[in-house]
Structures are given as C-alpha cells and as structure tokens.
C-alpha cells in the first residue's frame, strides 16, 4: 500500500502567480452569530494563511489568498468553511473542514421534491422522532450532520460523507433511512470480523427494494375489428313487430274506438229523450 503524502509549506518556496478571492453571502438570521464570532473566523483562516474580510452591512464574507499562502487546496476549504457557518453550522464544527482529514457536503434537499408537503414529510423522516434517526446516521457514518431549513450539511471523513450523502439523497427519493442504516450496521459488523475480510459482503447486506402499489387499469373493451359496420340499435317498433305486439295493439285500439263511438251515440240518444220531456206538446 502506498504511503500517503502530506502537504508541507516548505515544499513551496514561492508565492502564487495569481491571487484568488471569492465572496460568500450569508442570510440575515446568521448576522448576529457571525458578528459575535467574526474574530474567531478570521483567526481560523489566518492560521491557514488565508485572508478574510467580513462586511456585516452587505452580509458578505470575502475569502482571499495572500502572499503567504502555499497550499492551493486550502482556498477551497476556506470557502467551504465560510459557507458552512452561513448555513447554520457552529464554528467549532465548521473549523474541522480546514483540516486535511475532513471533507464537507452541502445538499439542497428542497430541489429534490416537487411540493412543500412532501418536502416537510421526508425531511421529518430524515430527522426521525426525537432526532433518533439523525443521531444513528451520525454515529454510523462518524460524521456531523445538520438538517437546517432547505439544506443538509455533512462534515466528516471522505467515506463517511459519501455514506451520509447517500442516505440523505435516498430519503428525498422516498427510500426510508432505516434501510441504509441497517446496511451500515451490518458493514460495521463485517469490518470487525477478520474471517470475512476477503469475502464478498453483498450477500450479507439487506437489499433495498422500493415497492409501490400500482392501481389496476380498467380494461377497455373495443369494437371487434372487421370491415362491416356495427348493426344499428333496434327501435321499439321493430321489437314489437318481431314479437307481434305491434299488430295486436292496432286491432285492439280500433275495437276500442268503435266501442267508444257506440257509447257516445247511445249517450246522445238518451240525452235527446230526456230533453223531449220538457218540450211543449203540439196543439
């Protein structure tokens, strides 16, 4: 195994050909905290040979290299340090990023979901009841994880940051954090077991299966294929003609008409006879 090469300022005698600078803005609610800790922020960056200027009115922190800076990567770490402080991370935790063994990741979880209701539900799932899920993630990944507003900040070793990031991204994609937590627990057990050092651990790890209920689609019954058009629906008269009701109904209706006419004539005759009683006799 190759030995890790550590950076030393003595390896670089000359200053940078070009100076680098970046302005990092911070929200208004962090203004008071940064005002109280600005001297510690400046000292932490000066210890790494990085210049810093804090403008509380414009809420901007300028990070710059100077003539004493020799490490080209420390500028990126200094910018990350300032961003973490602006995201709500305490200065004690954020200062760890300035060391070579620590890395960070700031994840914007709001962009991963479509609605505010889903965002709040999955963010609460990531934190867990009484922050138990978040504490389990921090213990297993050996990272500092902060869920603040619309972002998640992670600080730790490279491997731990990648593991914690996967849990966060999967949670926002509707995979419960407990699945990855169970896998990490099994991994830690495998790491402590020397007999399984050279084995494939995939068969020992629980597999994540995302299940979703699919609604049954109604089967659409279409018209049978063919060149001939469909038969038109039969009328009521056609059905009565087939059964014979149509002709019987006509005969019965004609008889009823004749009987009604006879009754009308008889009624008229009776009325005429009644009227004759009131007529004066002929003289």
Automatic annotation (TrEMBL):
Q: Which residues form the KRR1 small subunit processome component first KH domain?
A: 23-100
Its keywords, alphabetically, are:
Nucleus, Ribonucleoprotein, Ribosome biogenesis, RNA-binding, rRNA processing
A single GO cellular-component term on record: small-subunit processome
Question: What Gene Ontology molecular function terms does this protein carry?
Answer: RNA binding
Q: Does the keyword Nucleus apply?
A: yes
**Superkingdom field:** Eukaryota
The record's InterPro entries line, in alphabetical order, gives: KH_dom_type_1_sf (IPR036612), KRR1-like_KH1 (IPR041174), KRR1-like_KH1_euk (IPR048550), KRR1-like_KH2 (IPR048548), KRR1-like_KH2_euk (IPR048549), rRNA_assembly_KRR1 (IPR024166)
Span list, region Disordered: 195-283
Stretches with biased composition (Basic residues): 210-221
Gene3D superfamilies xref list: K Homology domain, type 1
Which CDD domains does the entry mention? KH-I_KRR1_rpt1, KH-I_KRR1_rpt2
Q: Which intervals carry biased composition (Basic and acidic residues)?
A: 247-264, 271-283
KRR1 small subunit processome component second KH domain ranges (all copies): 103-191
In which compartments does the protein localize? Nucleus, Nucleolus
Q: Name one GO biological process term.
A: rRNA processing
Report the sequence similarity comment from the record. Belongs to the KRR1 family.
Enumerate the PANTHER family for this protein: HIV-1 REV BINDING PROTEIN 2, 3 (PTHR12581), KRR1 SMALL SUBUNIT PROCESSOME COMPONENT HOMOLOG (PTHR12581:SF0)
The protein in question is named: KRR-R motif-containing protein 1
Q: Which organism is it from?
A: Encephalitozoon cuniculi (strain GB-M1) (Microsporidian parasite)
Q: What is the lineage of its organism?
A: Eukaryota, Fungi, Fungi incertae sedis, Microsporidia, Unikaryonidae
